[in-house]
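Table 4 source record.
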Amino acid sequence: MQIYQRTLKRPVACTGIGLHSGKKVNLCLRPAAPDTGVMFKRSDLAGAPLIPGDVHHVMATSMCTTVGKDGVSISTVEHLLSALSGLGVDNVLVEVDSPEVPIMDGSAAPFVFLIKNAGLTSQAELRRFYMVKREVSITDNDKFVKVAPARGLEVNFTIEFNHPMIRHQALGLRFDERTYEKDISRARTFGFLEDRERLRAANLGLGGSLDNAVVVDKYRVLNDDGLRFPDEFVRHKVLDFIGDLALVGRPVLGSFTAHKSGHALNNQLFRKFLDDPQAWQLVTPAPQRADELAPLEEMLPAFGRAVVA
């Protein structure tokens, strides 16, 4: 018995709008060969250039995560990456005819729906994991994020906003095969009404609306349907974190703790982690007998799970 990489069974597509451009975006997810990872393709440009979805190709982290190569970029990749990672997709080609991934409803749930419609299939190559061997941390004034050794994947996240609807929120999760979809995928991005004009003056957030974000004024949530979770704000921060973590390129077995972290600090930690060969070990779990599988599966995070053949 072995643990194998996964890709999609068939191509699947959707249409949405870009959060910042406000323009229509067509997206197609296609199966990819083993060890491809996540590869982005700008189908709207001559030669349809490819951009690897990894931490070393992150070129901007303001308001969203942007990856790029040779002057070509694609932004707002974190929600799609979060869904792909959360459902255990190792290899996929993401075709987009725009400089940004569509925002959909502001969460990862529409992408989860899309991926499940495509279906998943195991591949011939074994899945490998980064097992954390020692603590690595990044600090920026009162913000920090760190990773330490653990048997599975754990994320502990806290946020603080001087707003009566948010204040201090904390969430700690140990991921299993149900946690991501049930507890994280539906949490939407959020913004403050007072920032709207400033963003639009900078040609940002042109596609933002109550249909694709939780919006708060000085005192309340403006969305008619309210919040999907009482602590939806911190849950979305975890969703973003999982998307940024996917850029490491392989599932990670470790415990992450973050306080007021965002895309920039996340990316700094992941680069520092990968650049320190003493901080990790590549492992390929390979149980030899059926009775060895249960404890191994129990240890692995949801997006560390694979089809067992």
